[in-house]
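Lab notebook, bench 4. Continuing the backlog of folding jobs that were queued last week. Each job is logged with the same field layout so the records can be merged later without manual cleanup. Today's entry covers ABC-2 type transport system ATP-binding protein, a 295-residue chain. Filled in by technician R.K.

JOB TYPE: sequence-to-structure
TARGET: ABC-2 type transport system ATP-binding protein
LENGTH: 295
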Amino acid sequence: MTLEIDALSKRYGETIALDGVSFDVRPGEILGFVGSNGAGKTTTMRITLGVLAADAGQVRLDGRPVDLDVRRTIGYMPEERGLYPKMKVGEQLTYLAELHGMGRADARRASVHWAERLGISARLTSTVDALSLGNQQRVQLAAALVHDPAVLVLDEPFSGLDPVAVDVMSEVLREKARAGVPVLFSSHQLDLVQRLCDRVGIIVAGRMRTVGTVAEVRRGAGVRLEVHAPGAARGWADGLPGVTVEGAADGRTTLLLDRHADDQGVLAAALATGPVHGFTVRTPSLTDLYREVVA
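JOB STATUS: finished
OUTPUT FIELD FOLLOWS
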């Protein structure tokens, strides 16, 4: 199944929350949805689940508009915990599975399975409010998985988790993707997004700035050079065409080159100052790319 987000727009009074947001999540793909607070990630996800109505645009699953029946096939994990605090974990997971159409026996089996898989089986008889925040997060993910969803939409699923729990959740998402499930999740942990996702979508002020693999996003960005020229005076690279000086200290200069800049021209300018001990192209991380796109 393919989850399609098609030209979503949403306004709150004078505030534009979404402005023609479009992207898709393909079968077996994990797509990381990143942006600053207030950029539109949660609004997009709530519209996808039918929690909010879009002013314009549509969400489709395999070409079918998302209605109540389609919604039951989606596993959703909200950023704010949506669990019943005084209800026992096992009873709650079973109840939520039944709400999605599972029979009582299958719902109970699924609850036990996901509690074991996520390391909370010892907490099945505990109430949610008796759990640590990390374990509440694990229960929230179990609630999104318990009905064997055809699509996963997760808003900040790794927030507040310890490294072991992050590894467990990451492997669960990979397993679901290998089974053909489209997985959409948002996160501020960009190193994790880079490691886990097949593609990334960056949203800024309600508009999608870029969607693609990290390699594809890199191709649209500039090239960073680190030049070690110990005899160079400060400002030696100022004025070079297509070159921005990002930092300079102790004879080392970090430069951002746009797609039209000539790296050999930069090298020649560096050599004109004296010996060059280092001339290194630095591959930008997703964090670097994100900063560049947002800026």
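OBSERVATION: The longest helix spans residues 163-178.
SIGNED: R.K.
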